[in-house]
Write a structure and sequence with these properties.
- This protein has helices spanning 41-56, 68-74, 97-105, and strands spanning 8-17, 20-30, 78-82, 85-90.
- It is of the alpha+beta class and 117 residues long.
- Among the domains are: 1-35, no CATH class; 77-114, no CATH class.
- The chain is extended, with a radius of gyration of 19 Å.
Length: 117
């Protein structure tokens, strides 16, 4: 398979905050199919609104996120993965965000009813 050509490149990026250097001549490449989460709070809110609009129209959405408040706001069901494998599927009305994180991290075992067979 031939090497993919980036759809966007930025070279020698420098970002300073006063006397603090956050980026010092960094290079960045974006390839087709990659997704980036570099949007602000307003943009995040708009994305959630769009998801809810599509959901209301019956359009299925797959949201992959570690942002539990966002996930719990828009999800009908949540597939929780641990160590690269699906651990369980939960209903957001039946569990808390803390439960979901505890399942992900292994701090808590999901109940049998939430287990994926």
């Amino acid at each position: 398979m031939p090497a993919q050509t980036p759809i966007f490149q930025a070279k020698n990026l420098v970002k300073r905050y006063g006397r603090v250097t956050a980026l010092d001549h960094c290079n960045f490449e974006l390839y087709s199919g990659e997704v980036l989460a570099v949007i602000g709070v307003k943009e995040s809110r708009r994305v959630l609104e769009l998801i809810l609009e599509m959901k209301a129209r019956g359009i299925p959405i797959v949201l992959i996120s570690h942002n539990m408040p966002h996930v719990f706001e828009v999800a009908d069901r949540i597939h929780i993965h641990r160590l690269g494998k699906r651990l369980c599927v939960i209903q957001p009305d039946d569990y808390t965000m803390s439960d979901a994180v505890a399942f992900m991290t292994g701090a808590k075992e999901p109940p049998q009813l939430a287990q994926v067979v």
